[in-house]
Every structure is written in structure tokens, then in C-alpha cells.
Write a structure and sequence with these properties.
Layout lengths: L4 H8 L3 H30 L3 H18 L2 H17 L5 H23 L12 H9 L4 H8 L1 H8 L1 H12 L3 H14 L4
Helix pairs in contact: 2-3, 2-5, 3-4, 4-5, 6-10, 8-9, 9-10
Keywords: Phosphoprotein, Two-component regulatory system
Organism: Rheinheimera soli
InterPro entries: HPT_dom_sf, Sig_transdc_His_kin_Hpt_dom
Length: 189
């Protein structure tokens, strides 16, 4: 079983508030996975056993906490071989692990995406939203996700993509500056 989503459902307790607190961390894990795969692959190619072991352990812990069953099962023997026998996984075992990691990340992203389907087309109070950003309040992340359609309508598709990148990277300063610029240069309707 690739993913046991009941683990995630238990973590959020079917509570909207709990989901809002957990979703930024899950989104960040998904967003960081491609870079983690690159670093892990580079460490493997360089035969850096400690770095490979550390990365495997970190990824297993992060994903297993959320219910990634297959990834945890594939990771354990690889970590054990590295820790106890100081041996890198075989090329085949490593490729199977990376494939599972990618599939797990996609599955998690799809699961998280179901909550974005119900996007509210209204827009939050822009000045209040800027305050959330300036105070690094994670509610800014949640509001952005909840009201994607409203943001697309307000910002336009191109600007929305840039804003979304800032929010996903948790670069709230850049997002606040982007909104302030938009307010200052918005033509009177």
C-alpha cells in the first residue's frame, strides 16, 4: 500500500482548523521532495554513505508520519545496510526507492489537492492579509489556499503564479511587497 490516508485523516481529525495547521507542512514536504531527490541522488553517485543514510532517514520519517507505508518499508533495509554494514543500496534498490518516493509525493499532492477544489472565489481583506504576511502568520498560507479563485480573479493568471510561488516558498515578505505594489498601481475602477 503506497499511502494510508487514514493516518492523515486521523492527524487532522477531520477538523478544518487542524487541516489548516497541517497543510502548509505537507505542502512544504511535497514542494521540497524534488530537491531532496536531487541531493539524495548526488550523494549516492558520490558514494557519500552518511549523506545517503541521513536523507533516507529524514524522508522516511517525514513521509511515514503522514502514512507513507511502502516508502517506509523500502527505506528501512536500505538504512539498515548503510548503518550496520556501511553499504550503499544496489542501483536497482535505489531506483525502486526513488520511484516509490516520487509516487508517494504525487499521491500526497493529489490528496492535498482535493481540499483546493473547494476554492472560495471571494477575496480576503487585502490590508488584513498583508498584515498576516508581515507578521509571518501561517494563516496567510491557509487563506491563500482557501481563496485561490479569488486571488486568480484579483491578481490575474500571471501575477497569481508568482504570488503562489512566494506563498509556497513561505516568502511572506515578497508576497506582501507584491500585494502592496498591486494596490499602489491598481487603476481606479
Amino acid at each position: 500500500m503506497l499511502f494510508n490516508f487514514s493516518v492523515l485523516e486521523q492527524l487532522i481529525g477531520f477538523s478544518h482548523d487542524a487541516f489548516l495547521h497541517l497543510s502548509p507542512a505537507v505542502a512544504q514536504l511535497i514542494a521540497s521532495t524534488p530537491a531532496e531527490i536531487q541531493q539524495l541522488t548526488l550523494a549516492y553517485q558520490q558514494k557519500n554513505k552518511k549523506a545517503v543514510e541521513h536523507a533516507l532517514h529524514k524522508l522516511r520519517g517525514s513521509y511515514a508520519t503522514l502514512g507513507a507505508i511502502d516508502l517506509a518499508e523500502l527505506s528501512r533495509p536500505l538504512e539498515l545496510a548503510l548503518h550496520q554494514h556501511n553499504q550503499l543500496p544496489s542501483v536497482t534498490d535505489f531506483a525502486v526507492y526513488l520511484d516509490c518516493l516520487e509516487q508517494t509525493s504525487v499521491a500526497l499532492k493529489l490528496w492535498l489537492g482535493q481540499f483546493e477544489q473547494n476554492s472560495d472565489s471571494s477575496l480576503p481583506d487585502i490590508q488584513l492579509y498583508i498584515q498576516y504576511l508581515e507578521h509571518n502568520d501561517m494563516q496567510a498560507y491557509s487563506l491563500f489556499q482557501q481563496q485561490r479563485a479569488g486571488w486568480i480573479n484579483y491578481l490575474g493568471a500571471d501575477e497569481f503564479v508568482l504570488m503562489e510561488q512566494d506563498i509556497m516558498a513561505l516568502d511572506f515578505v515578497a508576497a506582501a511587497q507584491r500585494l502592496k505594489h498591486k494596490i499602489n498601481h491598481k487603476e481606479p475602477g
